[in-house]
Protein 1
Amino acid sequence: MNSDFKNNFLSKNEDVLGMVVSGSLTNGVEVKLNPDRSVSDIKIGRYVAIETQDLKFFGVVTDIELGATDQTLRVNPPEVSNPFIANVIKGTTAYGVIQVEPMLILSQEDFDSLSGPQPAKTIPPHFSQVSFASDLDVETVFGLESDTNFWLGNPLDMDSAKLCLNIEELIKRSNGVFGKSGTGKTFLTRLLLLGIIQRGAASQLVFDMQSEYGWKGFSEESKEVKGLKQIFPSKVAIFSLDEESSKRRGVNPDYVVRIGYEDIEPADISVLKQTLNLSDIAADAAYSLERYFGPSKWFKKFISLSGGEEFIDLARDLNVNQSALSSLKNRLSRFKRFNFMDELGGNDSVSQILSYLDRGMHVILEFGRYGSDLAAYMLVANLLTRRIYARYAISAEKALGDPTQQPTPLVITIEEAHKFLSSDIASQTIFGTIAREMRKHNVTLLVVDQRPSSIDEEIMSQLGTKITCLLDNEKDLDSVLTGISGNRKLRSVLSRLESKQQALIFGHSVPMPMVIKVRDYGTAISYADFQIEDVDVDFDFSEDNEDLFGKKDNS
Amino acid sequence: MSLSYRIGEVVESSSIQFTVQCYDLYKSPNIGTLVKCGDDPQLFGLVYDVSNKSMDPARRAVPRGRNENNEEGVYLSNPQLSRLLITEIKCVSVGYKSIEGIEQSPISLPPKIHSFVLECLDEELKEFSSSLDFLPTLLESAILTSNDEVISSFLLKSSKTHNDASQFLIYAGKELAFNLNGQLIRLNNLLKRISK
């Protein structure tokens, strides 16, 4: 054995947990804890290393059990009221057992060739020593923080070890951030967005439903935290759909998005079928209307119809049920209330967004008050993305002829993703297309959702890396873990995550699943780690404050 | 340096046990005491039985104190008794001393008859009890009349020679627990004895 290999990887005695006593490749290995180890020292999801003569396995604790050499212990427990007896029995007659799922294996050759650990296709032999993984083990498997590796958090109970995510690998596929409400999805997403910005791996378009990524957000404790623009002012542009709301929040948007009636296409209505409670017939009528009135005119003409005879004639001409057409008109009339919609025409927001993205900038589209209107969110997100994707598709085709024309990779972040990607409509929305096509046109998704079970199964299986906070719904757990090896065991890990600042990460960009304590965000030190650009970001909010609260009485 | 107390001599031996006749009537070590005998090699035994009896198996002792006021008077009136009665101890072989150190397993050859038998000093007991590899043999030994009494007595004596008696007993207790797999009640009773 190469001495470096041994020296680097030999576990310290204080980290030793026990030894492998049984197991299988399909069920993982059973580890009997040493007498000095209590089961309560070990948490599910903990990262462990297993040493053999010439190999090192890396795995995750997937279950914790209490064992006994004597089965009569259950019915005739020893006199543990005697501290001496209790001390003796603990770890001998009654002992702890952990189940470990070996995920990776590191051999001498892998170590020498720097190829890193490989997926485990065997298991460690009997009596192999099992210990807590060291910081060095984490580095070996996940890499050091670097130009490509972004520090996302710390492995469970390993505060000094940094778990780094290869951002370049991450953006090669669409990814998902999941977790039930209040578990830290937004913080996690914000960190990922920051990581992509910091590493300069891709441009980003974020559909910021609750306006919490751009300028500032709030923690669960209502503590204010900086948004992406405050950390990278020169790399992030805030687009707003609701200028008034932006100003009230003290944000000076780089661009105010206006959508023209002519921009709306029937496909945008199909996406809203569920949200607007439209029947299939009513939703499909939009295509008939487009054919009838012509592209880019149909919406304006349709919602300006007065009704009566004119409406009956239209239904007859289109051969569409009149009540279906009527319900479509009623629902679409809601759009008139959206101030960002302009009857006279939009301001070519798509070109504006693209011009920012082409410069390698990151666009956060704040929805302001429309963030609470799912129809508005879905309409705008779908409409803009469809057009941006179409432009990217053209650029990608050009790049086939001239590789230097390769467009900058684009990551589009959407929240409430299941609304766009449910089985009913995933095939119709542009997001479904992007998720399925992977990186075909250099565009990928970052989907953020609390109900992954509502997302189309095929789309879920296409997501490269999934980072999931606590989920407790059975269907959601199944959905997130579908298709990954050892999912039954990871399920118990996932369902026992803490409700705050903990997540399970697995998939394409990480060598093995890992429970992490998500990196701190919101403190001065945490901001310093992101190397905040030295730019004066103080805006004069006095005018906005006056708008809000009235002028100060200086008398 | 204190000298070992010479108890008596081996009068009967086998490779697993030996019998010692004590020099003085009633002057014997308790059961669980570690004794040593022989020189090449030096053997260790654990006292598991102590008996007082007539030297001649054919001549049993008879009552002699009907007219005596106390028991001591019996011996004063019959001075020959200290010659006719003997104290005998039985020891189980638990190890021997080789050039590598103490081996905790019976030696293949029994001690010679008339080997001097001495009680081990505290330092020797401490050294011997630093490992308890002989416990499994002793726990299952069929020759001992009261295995658990011998073991608990030995462990309690040994604990007093160690700097941290309670730590030693926990170590010993865990050894017992490992070796008494499936005998929870016996283990519990044994642990109770050594926890006193």
Note: Chain A has 22 helices and 23 strands.
Protein 2
Amino acid sequence: MPSRILVCDDEIHILRAVSMKLRKSGFSVETCNNGEDGWNCALHFAPDAIVTDYQMPVLNGLELCQRVRAHETMRDIPVFLLTARGFELDHEEMKSRYLVSQVIVKPFSPRDLVSAIQKHLDQLDALRGPADSPQT
Amino acid sequence: MIPASSFYVPILTTSAACAIGTAAAVYFRLHSAEAAVYALLGCLLCGGVTCGFLRQQLLLARQRIRSPEFSKGHRNSGPQGLFQPLLDEFHALTNTLQADLESKDQACSELELRSRIRLKTAQRLEHALQCVGHAVVVTDTNGELQYCNRDFLTLYQATDGDENIDIDQIEPLTSLLRKTSTRLAATNMRQTEFDHSCDGEMVRYRATSNSLVVDGTLQSIATVIRDIRDQRKQQSRHAEFVSAVCHELKTPMASIRAYIELLLDEDVEEPEEQRELFTFIETQVDRLTRLVNNMLNLTRIESGVIEIQRQDCELNDVINKAMDVTQAPADEKRIVCHRSLSGLFMPIHIDRDLFGQALINLLSNAVKYTLDEGTIDVKSRVDGQRALIVIHDTGMGIPAESLPHIFDRFYRVPENKSVAPGTGLGLSLVHYIVTELHNGTIEVESEVGQGTRFLLTVPLGHQNARVKKHNQQVAID
């Protein structure tokens, strides 16, 4: 069963490029253009990983990440934060305080993003054991 | 020395004659009273002649003293007279005294002149220190107050003549002065920043202390305290601007980067889809170009690189020309443009190019966000001392929550982003041109689905722009 990836970004072309790359790599993808829709989608889609933009209307990426970390079943899934304000964000604080798995600075390589997602999923699989691991 | 022949001779002669006469009178009295009388008469005659002679000499001396030649120091011509030696002595003495007085007068004049020059210098310095616009304080080596200007008194809310300012109680200063005096070997200038309450607001100040060292000895420390809130605001605005610029540049670049990678990795197989991505990349590059050009334009205007050239214009003429520029794009969308301009002559003093650009930006937005077959109404009229311009379209309108941000840099109404391309700098530029450069005002009213109204005012006639800055009126030509 392919891994499920939720992608949230208010920039339609980023959404399109990332989702195309992920689907090409064998992932199942859902997209949303704001954090609130992203959260509602996550509740029924039950993603294995989330890729979210930092600045979005209604609910931003950090707030979405906080909700995910507070959720019983989703709290361990990798969350990747996309942002154009790379130098203004403290990456370590994002990781330690908001439990973001990785900060991706725009412009970025979709190829590298897919590799990072795969790597985190493999690490999660290793922690969980063979019975719980999804397969791409 | 007075020669004996000049003064004593007649006295001695007279005395001798009196003595001889008296002796003869006494002798002859013993033998003959008549002879005695003759002797006495002889004495009196000699005495009278002598007195007359002396009187004549005194008169002569007085005459000589009063003559112009005497005051000029020249030796009198003519008979010298009995008192001439005395006069010469007196003359020499007066010359010496006069020279002395003259030199003392000169010295007094010089001192007075120097004193006036120093007073003027002190007055100029005092005036300069009062006008410098920053708080200035001078302290001695013990940290005691020696001088402060009015701005310093105002800063610490003291009144003129208040000698009770205790520098020791002003902590940021105390510490700075202590370090300045004790660490002189390292540097004779130190700086610190601190917050201080001013009119109920915490304001950031920067204090810079400079030591006055003479022959290796510290004499005093002069400290200047500057209000740096404007500088901080400017730095903050600049940082925000740079951050916003980077964000605006990175966003299209991210899309371009992502699509290029997809194309290179051959993730996009359909030729139509490939073409679509290439087209998108092309439009994004155009967007980036417009963005850079608009940013450059805005910063050049704001920083004064573009020189503002004001001239007397007629407002309706400027409006008509702006509307002519945007007529073609309006015609393409079959948007009807109405002109309801005042019949009055409305003179304004503006930079024609910049103000015209502002109007073009507003009209272009109206065309951009008005659907096909909509209308755009432009009106002008006199409103007291100002001219009023109204640009009203029947376009998409702006949501209420976006209205407060409509003039912010890079702000674009989220709902309207997909309708037309834009950089988010157009209205920011309009706002700056109208309010900062032309002392005008601009307001916006809008309702989603109903349209938008921009209301501009600009001063009528030839009025210098006046910008209020911290309660000081600064005239800008």
Note: The interface with chain B takes residues 10-11, 13-14, 17-18, 20-21, 24, 57, 84-85, 88, 106-111 of chain A (CB under 8 Å).
